Amino acid sequence: MIIESKRVERNSLTWILRCPTKNDATELSKLRIEIDGETENLDRESGEGLLTPEDFEKLIYEDSVAVKNVFLVAEIDGKIVGFARCEGSKLSRFRHKAEFGICILKGYWGHGIGKVMIENILLCASTAGIKKISLTVVQTNAKAIQLYKKYGFVEEGLLINDRIHKDGNYYNTVIMGKILDN
């Protein structure tokens, strides 16, 4: 799915919300590694699960033609500072569902980029006929959990000792979901 680009002015920051093009693939590949290295909140450490520029080109194309997928980027002054993807299930029994995730450079946290991305992901999912959208988040990421709850997500489950971080400690993963009215 492709959405129209939007100029966003929020919290003294002006940026563009848009779908990526194949010309963004190299930048997205590098950005993902950078963001993964900035926080323990994501599933990967920097360089793990590497997506090459070619992998991103394929994702960008597939998401642009898929009815239940959307790929969004946040661009400030010509630089991508975050992205979000929503992917609908291809399995028949789960065709009513989609999963999504967001990652934003740490220097841009707190500027409302995540909020705008969530709002647009939810709008696209609803438009595409998705009935349920879900995500996972590390339990210690209280700000993200509160943000998701603000948008109507509820905690549906907890995966105990689901992940291990660099500090050697185990952490729980919260499963969250939202039923969409469409």
UniProtKB/TrEMBL annotation:
Ranges where the N-acetyltransferase domain occurs: 26-181
Species in which this protein is naturally found: Clostridium brassicae
One family name in Pfam for this protein: Acetyltransf_1
The protein's name in its UniProt record: GNAT family N-acetyltransferase
